[in-house]
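Need Nuclear receptor domain-containing protein's 3D structure for a figure. Predict it.
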Amino acid sequence: MIHHHHTGDCLFAIDYFPACRSGFIAGVMVDAEERVRTSAIGRCAVCGAPAKCLHYDAVTCSGCKNFFRRSLVEGRRYVCAREGLCVISEDNRLFCKACRLAKCFIAGMNANAIQLDSDDSRKKMHVQLSRSRTMVDYRGRCQQIVPPNVIVVEDACNKLIESLLFFENRCNRVRLSTFDPAKEELQHKDIEYLLRTPFRFGDVSKLEIPMNWPSNQVMPRSFEDFALKSPFIKQWFLLDMVLAVEFSKTLGGFQIIPIEEQKEILKTALITNRLFAEAFFSFQVNSDSIVFPDGVKPLDLLKYNFRMTDIYIECFKNVMEPLIRYKPSKQEYVICKAIIALNAECPNISRETSEILDAARKQYTDVLLRLCQRENGDVGGAVRFGNLMGLIQTMHAYGEKFNRLRTLFLLYLRSKLPQRKPSKLAESLFNVA
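Structure prediction for Nuclear receptor domain-containing protein:
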């Protein structure tokens, strides 16, 4: 059982930090040495000192919490003597306040989470944050002070996007390899097993890349061939669901909530993100319908075995239309995936979990808006942002359609092959048997 206790600006994290196995805390990717250190309970994301709480949406010690609050509330401005290159650790965190404050933002500390006595105080703090100033540095040079929300927050956004791309590329490396989910018996693993274990694919660089893709495979001509006699057909739906789980596990807001509620969130988001991943890959290879890396198209698999209906066309062909229309970049795509995964509107989760997801989701939507405006200007970026948020809603709608298709397929499977069982992952997530 996971317990969360609020005390002022602090959220205790003692119970849930063993789940933070991926090295991804508050949107920051850390190096290997830091990953080992922060995987233990209570290490400050800023200086590495012991920490037991989330302060302002990041894992930090009380010292860095107080420093961050004091710096922003009092409108302090610092200048680095080493051009922003200082390494911040527990031993030297007092040496450079400028770099310490920068690392607070990069670690994900959120100025909006600071509790203030009045709206006037909050407004004053934001005015201080947005004001450019000049200051004479230690060498006597006149230097413009750029507020943290211009440079430091931009750096934090870049690091968050880099982290998402890192984990997405790791999942893609599995997807584009000869890894076979059936041979690894992933069909016998339930959702709780996947959530409680670290990234199960190990060193992805050692996975073999097939040399014969796309292949010219003969499609099965009967349902029995399709369901039982076609071991050469890779279980792409199963693999893509597992990879969608692995991607969700890397998200800071997702990691810190109870396992039971993680499962509830995945019930609503997993199918959407799995379908989104398949559609984006298909878009990248200029296909007008869903296609898997080995060249197999679901519509080709189904046309010999089922009466083709509109829902099949919707889920495997029409789903491509919004991607072809909006042409999302890979950066935009991974941020949208994170927003989908952090679904705070699903039923059966606590108010506290909903608030955690809301905060994490807002972090990614803010980054998406910043990215859009950086690439397209303020007005064009706002339009682009609206289109991408619309794309997310469209993918949710297609996810719901695929869920109905999945139900129809299971009913057909039971009628044709009652001895054939769905995967443990599907059973544990969707209560099918």
